[in-house]
Amino acid sequence: MASNTHDAGHDAAHGAADAAHHAADAAHGSGGMPQLDFSTYGNQIFWLVVTLVAIYFILSRIALPRIAAVLAERQGTITNDLSAAEDLKAKATEAENAYNKALADARAEAQRIAADARAEIQAELDEAIAKADAEIAAKAAESEKAIADIKAGALDAVKVVANDTAAELVTALGGQADADAIATSVADRMKG
Amino acid sequence: MGKIFLYVALAAVLLSGLIFAPEHAGLAIHPTDQFLVKPLFGGDHVAWYTPTNVTLWLALAVAAIFALLVLGSSARSIVPSRAQSVAELAYGFIYKMVEDVAGKDAVRFFPYIMTLFMFIVTANFLGLIPMSFTTTSHFAVTGVLAIAVFVTVTAIGFALHGVKFLSLFWVSSAPLPLRPVLALIEVISYFVRPVSLCIRLAGNIMAGHAVLKVFAGFAAGLSIFGFLPIFAISAFYALEVLVAFIQAYVFTILTCVYLKDALHPSH
């Protein structure tokens, strides 16, 4: 780059007079800087003031109030949405609580119903068992009585058979069967 | 794909250098010609009312601001379009600057500061269009802006605080013997403000544009190596885009600082 600038310096010498003439011509001899050409200041200042006033009115009358309104509206929308979300969240929590309560109630109800049913069944069962027991006891007593009757009947029959057998035995041995004596001795034997 | 385009572009630059190179390489560097104020409709004389290229580019600045801030926001949508969100960004940027730098009670001056910023930033960017005229490169323009800021801020200071506004120059936290010296320095620095505002803006813009023109002049004188300055111009142009915004930002934020001094003069 340095050598380039050097070359440029050489070449510049050729067109220097031309350039200087041009610049001087353009800037009305004010040292080549158009910024220091005071003859254009009035013009620039006039148009600048017009421009600034125009921009100020555009901004303060139209643009800024409109943008401020849009920003405020957006802020409002966001706030509203947030509070709506808050409300909905509260509602959701409420609904969840209600649901949990209903669930707990239902569970308690179910338990109560189950307990009732169990107690009822138990009572019926107890009753049936008692009834069955009574029947069984009655039946057992009846049976015992029947057995006792049968036993008593059997003993009498044995006594008759024993008397008859003893009388026949005495007769067969050539003795005289005395009915009373045989009955007494059979009774004595059966006791012993 | 991108690489192929890059090579094609380089080849095109080289070829055009070969084809369009002047017969005898001569330098044609006129970096200040772009700042000439010329009547729009012929003639030589520039009277105060003559429509000139200054008028044209100031009008274009007004049109650009109107297009961006008014037409861009005309939909007033909750979910903004691109133009509307640029307008909202500009609004929010300057509003926050005024609020943060100059204080909450400076918000009533927001439209004036917005006007200032929008004009400078738009004029700077319009000036970056090749062959355009940069209004903010002229001391007449930046000088008016700087003096307007200076006069307004001083008037606000005296209107709000009367003579007490002068306490701005009386550094009460310094030791008593030092205070007159400091007061002198403060007064001088106060009066240098408009000068520095004016020269900083015009100087930066003018220098950047002049450098671009100088590089362009080199391109004409280097025959087939003419593409080298063109690359330099591309890089420098990016810097100029940055400067165009930063100078508008600096001018505006300094205005806010001065406004804060006027609203709260005590140190």
From TrEMBL, chain A:
Subcellular location(s) of the protein: Cell membrane; Endomembrane system
Q: Which InterPro entries does the record associate with it?
A: ATP_synth_b/b'su_bac/chlpt, ATP_synthase_B_chain
The portions of this protein that span the membrane are 45-64
Q: Where is this region: Disordered?
A: 1-23
The molecular function terms of the Gene Ontology recorded here are: proton-transporting ATP synthase activity, rotational mechanism; proton-transporting ATPase activity, rotational mechanism
Q: Which UniProt keywords apply?
A: ATP synthesis, Cell membrane, CF(0), Coiled coil, Hydrogen ion transport, Ion transport, Membrane, Transmembrane, Transmembrane helix, Transport
Any Pfam family the entry gives:
ATP-synt_B
* Compositional bias annotation for Basic and acidic residues: 7-23
Q: How does the protein's chain sit in the membrane according to the entry?
A: Single-pass membrane protein
Highest taxon above the source species: Bacteria
Cellular component GO terms, alphabetical: endomembrane system; plasma membrane; proton-transporting ATP synthase complex
First-listed, main subcellular location of the protein, grouped into a coarse class: membrane
Q: Which residues form a coiled coil?
A: 85-127
Q: Which family does it belong to?
A: Belongs to the ATPase B chain family.
State the function annotated in the UniProt record: Component of the F(0) channel, it forms part of the peripheral stalk, linking F(1) to F(0). The b'-subunit is a diverged and duplicated form of b found in plants and photosynthetic bacteria. F(1)F(0) ATP synthase produces ATP from ADP in the presence of a proton or sodium gradient. F-type ATPases consist of two structural domains, F(1) containing the extramembraneous catalytic core and F(0) containing the membrane proton channel, linked together by a central stalk and a peripheral stalk. During catalysis, ATP synthesis in the catalytic domain of F(1) is coupled via a rotary mechanism of the central stalk subunits to proton translocation.
The record ties this protein, via NCBIfam families, to: PRK13454.1
Q: How does it assemble?
A: F-type ATPases have 2 components, F(1) - the catalytic core - and F(0) - the membrane proton channel. F(1) has five subunits: alpha(3), beta(3), gamma(1), delta(1), epsilon(1). F(0) has three main subunits: a(1), b(2) and c(10-14). The alpha and beta chains form an alternating ring which encloses part of the gamma chain. F(1) is attached to F(0) by a central stalk formed by the gamma and epsilon chains, while a peripheral stalk is formed by the delta and b chains.
Q: Which PANTHER family match?
A: ATP SYNTHASE SUBUNIT B (PTHR33445:SF1), ATP SYNTHASE SUBUNIT B', CHLOROPLASTIC (PTHR33445)
Protein name per Swiss-Prot or TrEMBL: ATP synthase subunit b
Q: Which organism is it from?
A: Epibacterium ulvae
Q: List the lineage, top down.
A: Bacteria, Pseudomonadati, Pseudomonadota, Alphaproteobacteria, Rhodobacterales
TrEMBL record, chain B:
Per the record, the major location class is membrane
Query: Which family does the similarity line name?
Result: Belongs to the ATPase A chain family.
- Give TM regions: 52-72, 79-97, 109-127, 139-161, 181-202, 214-235, 241-259
Quote the function comment for this protein. Key component of the proton channel; it plays a direct role in the translocation of protons across the membrane.
Compartments where found: Cell membrane; Membrane
Family annotation (InterPro entries) = ATP_synth_F0_asu, ATP_synth_F0_asu_bact/mt, F0_ATP_A_sf
Its domain of life?
Bacteria
- Write out the GO cellular component annotations: plasma membrane; proton-transporting ATP synthase complex
**What Pfam families does this protein map onto?**
ATP-synt_A
Question: What's the protein's topology in the membrane?
Answer: Multi-pass membrane protein
Instruction: Provide the gene name from the record.
Output: atpB
Taxonomic source organism: Epibacterium ulvae
Q: What is this protein called?
A: ATP synthase subunit a
Keywords on record: ATP synthesis, Cell membrane, CF(0), Hydrogen ion transport, Ion transport, Membrane, Transmembrane, Transmembrane helix, Transport
Supply one GO molecular-function term.
proton-transporting ATP synthase activity, rotational mechanism
